[in-house]
Amino acid sequence: MAISYSLSAQPNGYGFGHDWTLNVSDGKKKASFWLGQDAKVFSRILGMNNDSAVDYYAEKAGSRVWEKVQKLIAGDVIRAVLGLEQGERITSVHIKKLMTAQAWELAVQ
Question: What CA–CA distance (Å, rounded) separates 101 from 33?
Fold first, then answer.
């Protein structure tokens, strides 16, 4: 069964930015992890400031369209929280390990 991962975004309560949720599946089960505000995810998980991160992922995806960049960001979040190398292929073993976390454990708030 194929693994999957993505980010979903909802406008946050402050009126600027978005709150992100990381969604993962090992092909059988699904899990969601509320991460928090986009700028805080970039800073606290990925070690980038917001402007640099937007430029980086837009260049990497060849687009600024959310549907094209969100999977790249989701993959990098997974790699960061699991201590994987940049660009390392994410496998079902990684997703299953991530799915043992509590839904709130990845929150950056």
Answer: 9
Residue 30, both tokens: 């699904």
Q: What are the tens digits of pLDDT across the range 63-87?
A: 999 999 999 999 999 999 999 999 9
In 1-109, DSSP assigns E strands to 4-11, 18-25, 30-37
Strand order in the sheet with 30-37: 4-11, 18-25, 30-37
Contact assessment for residue 102 and residue 37, using Cβ atoms and an 8 Å cutoff: no
Amino acid at the residue 6: S
Query: 2-50, pLDDT tens digit by residue?
Result: 999 999 999 988 788 899 999 999 999 999 999 999 999 999 999 999 9
Q: Do 35 and 108 form a contact (C-beta atoms < 8 A)?
A: yes
Helix pair 66-82, 50-61: axis angle to 10 deg: 110
Q: How far apart are the first and last CA of the chain?
A: 33
pTM score of the predicted model: 0.94
